[in-house]
Every structure is written in structure tokens, then in C-alpha cells.
Amino acid sequence: MIIKSVRGKSPQMGKECFIAENAVIVGDVLVGDFCSIWYNAVLRGDVHYIKMGNKVNVQDGAVIHCTYQKAPTNIGNNVSIGHNAIVHGCTIKDNVLVGMGSIVMDDCLVESNSIIAAGAVLTKGTHVKGGSVYAGVPAKKIKDISAELMSGEIDRIANNYVKYASWFKT
Prior knowledge:
Number of strands: 20
Mean pLDDT: 96
Radius of gyration: 15 Å
Helix content: 10-25%
């Protein structure tokens, strides 16, 4: 793994985190407790800060970045960032699933209890209301979230990634 200081700012990790051997975390990055950063994931806090809450998983190949002097990245608790997703200069609240290959651009706000579908593109400034499922290019609301999606997807995936991470700890 590459964990590196940039411009005098060093990544800070919470307790019980798993960081894959080839993950990259640089600069002003704060990772909460029980988080996992998977293979080939990049968290680059070189131009602004990245703050992540507890029980966040950043899956393989995902990139989290910011925009210089304009847009930091804030991620809440119980959030899953899917494989090859790009999360850039935005705010993602609690209990959110960002699907595989999706893109969340600058100044987006994803409220709690939401799903961004695989392959969706949230263009700059998109506001996802809490309890929504967004899909498409550009992403639009396709439905309200159900209790089944909340427990069967958002909670299940976040909890599974805490379990998966435990398998890799030595």
C-alpha cells in the first residue's frame, strides 16, 4: 500500500481498518473506523480533503478525489463505493450505495438512504434526495427506496465488507 504525506498533510486511519497492499491513500485523508480500502483503490487528498465516516468500503479500482480549492469530498457512515466508481468533490451522506462504475461529480449531494445505480453518472451539482434510487446517464430518480433495498442492499453490502475485511487481517 502507498500511504503518503502531501503538502504536510498525512492520511489518518481509524481503528479496525483494512487497507489492501496496492491501495493508494495520499494527503489530507481521514478514514473512520471499520473501513476497508480495496485493491487498486485510490484516495487522493492532495488538492483538498477527503473525510470518510465509519464502516465505509471503497471497493477495487474506485477513485476518490477532489477539486483544488473548490470541492472537498465528504462521505458519511455505512457507505459502499462500488468497484471502479469515481467519487469526486462531492458529499455523500449516511447509508448510501454508490454502484459499480458510477460517477459522482463535483458539488453533488447524495442524501442518506439512497442508491446510485451501477453505471450512473451524477453530473455536477446533482442533488439526490434521501430515500431515492438514481440511475442512467445523466442520472435521474427512478424510484423511492424500499425497506427491502435498504436492508437487502445498502446494509447487507456495508456489513459484508466489514466481514470480508476481517478475512484479510493478519
